[in-house]
Amino acid sequence: MQRSPSFAYRVHGGPPLGQDSEASGIVHELGHVLGAGWVDAEALDEWFCEQGHQIKDYLVWEKLHEGLQIELRVTVGEESVCSLKGVDSMFRRRLLSIPPNDANAFAMHTLIRQSADSVLIESGDSTVSVQTNWSMVADLFRESLVESETRYWLKQALGLLGMLDGPVSQLPAIGKYWEFHSRLFHRFSSTDGTPYPSGGTFPHMGSEPVAPVFKPPMTDNILRLAKPPKKLKLQLATGLDDVLGSRRSLRPQKPSPLTATELGALLHASFYPLRLIDHEPTSPSSYEASKRPYPSGGGMHPLELYLLVSQPGQHGLPNGLYHYRLREHLLEALPSNEAELSKLARATIADWPVSITLFATARLGRTGWKYEAVTFRLIYAEWGALLQTLHLNATALGLSLSGLGSLPASLFSRVSQVDYNAEPLIGLAALCGPASETTSK
Prior knowledge:
By secondary structure, the protein is α+β, with helices and mostly antiparallel strands. The protein has 14 helices and 18 strands. The strands form 4 sheets. Strands 2-1-3-4-7-6-5 form a 7-stranded antiparallel sheet. It is elongated and about 80 Å long. The N and C termini lie far apart (64 Å).
């Protein structure tokens, strides 16, 4: 028979109560109890009763739990079992009532990682983060004649959270379409799916400046692009209903080059900044931004475009890799190796004659400077918006464009010499000129 564990609480984040003065007053009172650190759960229960608080007090307590801001510590005697961030107010009572867990493995969506001198156990199936130590994890499934009390209660807690395989998990089946990394990404980029800070928290404000709104020049070897002439401007003015109705992902079956004027018109209409937005010097959270033809989370616009020219044609560009310097509307010819460029072209897995492949990267020093947890979700949403903008303008210009599902991120970083950690590859699209024989989707 295992001894029952002891529990203690503390608040690990500011209460999400807005301007509710009555609720804030109760939190202030709670702060006298919780502000000093860990508070014994039974003592906290007694405090609630002694103060004669009404139901609203408990609603505030529940709201702190719902905001994933309460941390619960579990101990047996003098030994620590774990601490849990993001639990609901009934977790400790459920933990004491469930049958013993006989699981001998972690569930498929469980993640174990080092955090300072502790171990964090997390899951794409739970909003809770469990903190313990390596010796506890190593001992978790070890065969033993006598079950240690700390191991028993850690298994009980992990099983209750669905982090172990076994009958105790109270979570529903999640379906066969979730993969491990996809589940984790979705959970931890959800604003209500993690006990960690999320959203526009400005995590790096004060420690480092935001990345500049435009990427600094990469080389002096440039090719200037013309802005759209009157004829192409008229084409770009095609009604939205028309281009939406006729947009297709077009894949020419024969070489279909485009002209330098058409390329310049597409880039200018889709990516060129419409105006600059200055920062407010007196506001530390202000930053320079730009207005562009597609939306971006917080107006950060981290995306950059690179062009791989692999089919010489009327555009007049030699085969090679280029960066679009959008502020000046020109292309920077990057140093390249023919063998590496051929490898990069093959890695796009486009099985039709592509004139130009567009590579979109994201400068994390823009969006990541302002946002936590949701940074990549915002970036991928922005790439979708830019891809649709490119599609609609290509349709208006009579060009062939198709998004690509491949993402040779490491290879692109090596060939382009763009730092993977600061500016990773986000998406690709294949661009060709007008084509009479195409496949479409």
